[in-house]
Amino acid sequence: MFQESILKNLSASFDAERTKFTKKDVAFIAGKDSFKGKMLGFLTFDYYRREKLIREGNLVYGYAYRAWTNEVTYTKPYPIWVLFSPAKEFVENPSLYGDVLRALQAIEKPKHRHAKIYHLYTMLNAELSEPKYVLIPEPYAQGHLVYLSMVYLRPSHLANLCLGVNPFLIAPNVSKEILLLPSKYWTEEFKKEYFNL
Q: Helices marked H in the chain — which ranges?
């Protein structure tokens, strides 16, 4: 199981690397290193804030619980849905995400359109919903501060996604987008834990 020390080591390693980033490195993490990548999301504000998010963001454990694509070759970016929290208890014990996810999966479609629950249900279940920093209501979040977001995973960043704990860059004061940290920047210790080597 992922431990706090593994994330701290990954974060320290990434912080050291990003001080030496070239424009090419930032373009790679931002997904702007190809024509198709440059076109994905170029009409959104978050697209233009990615570089700042990469340079200033904090690394957190997030919990990828769903992915969707109708492609069999996995060559194009595809969405994954993620629970994440800036709270220290999720760094110390990422298995807390499992408790939150179980509570969320128990939500049934509301018979009456109670606005908050209906919106949350839609964000959780709609095939192509694009939630960004949707705050999970406290009863479902077990009293913790937990958010739901969708991220586009680029196969060049991580060829073999494992649902569950993954490292993400967040900077809520910069952007409502979160980014998966490409495996190229993972420590060997994190890779070993992630792929159960």
A: 4-18, 23-30, 35-39, 45-56, 88-92, 96-105, 115-125, 188-194
| pLDDT of 182 over the 80 cut | yes
Q: In whole angstroms, what is the distance from residue 120 CA to residue 147 CA? A: 11
pLDDT at 112: 67
Q: Residue-wise over 39-65: b if at least 16 C-beta within 10 A, else e?
A: eebeeeeebebbbebbeebebbbbbbb
Residue with tokens 């198709």: 36
Residues 162, 194 contacting (CB under 8 angstroms): yes
The pLDDT tens digits for 96-132 are: 999 999 999 888 777 766 677 888 888 888 777 888 9
Angle at 149 between CA 143 and CA 154, to 5 degrees: 145
Reading the block at residue 103, the tokens are: 């509570």
Strands of the sheet containing 164-170, edge to edge, are: 134-135, 147-153, 78-84, 58-67, 164-170, 179-180
Residue 111 pLDDT: 72
- By the 10 Å C-beta count (0-12 exposed, 13-18 middle, 19+ buried), 168 is classed as buried
| Residues in contact with 71: Cβ distance below 8 Å, sequence separation at least 6, in sequence order | 78
- Say how far apart CA 168 and CA 179 lie, in whole Å: 5
Are the CB atoms for 105 and 120 separated by under 8 Å?
A: no
Tell me what pLDDT residue 14 has: 94
